[in-house]
Amino acid sequence: MKYTTTINDKKFEIEITNDGKLLVNGQPREVDFLHLDESLYSLIMQNNSHEVVVEQRDGDYEVLVGGHLFTGRVLDERAQLMASRRGGGFTETGEITIRAPMPGLIVAITVKEGDEIKAGQTVVILESMKMQNELKAPRDGTVQRISVEAGQTVEQKKILVTIT
After folding, report:
1. Which one-letter DSSP state was computed for residue 77?
2. Which residue, among 110, 111, 103, 112, has the nearest Cα to 153 in the 3D structure?
3. Does domain 1-90 have CATH number 3.30.700.30?
4. CA 146 to CA 163: how far, in whole Å?
């Protein structure tokens, strides 16, 4: 099965072959992926181990790896065909929220309400499990609302920042 995956505006073609092998843009990858908990996974790739948090939100996926938050969309062959027949892929417009991918402490908020921001710009730094995680904007936009403040403890899925 082939999938088109868009992560932070960069497209990848992912194929899982009939014999279970993984190809990324036609190149084979050795990956061991194990589901640990509700949204927690273990990923071993190129002899490096990673703890990965994956959340599905409004048809997109948010993936936290090594303190970096990535936003992605995955389309299988059927969904890709339907999107192309509608005249293209999905547009990234409207209101989006950045939520806490795990419980933690808000260390810093690097933006203010009304700020114009760019995709990939850090908006919040969340400390969890003794690691500081930079939560980044998935696309360009304007900071509409900041729902937390530095020093505040938050639960998983708490809305932190709203962007339009």
Report:
1. H
2. 103
3. yes
4. 9
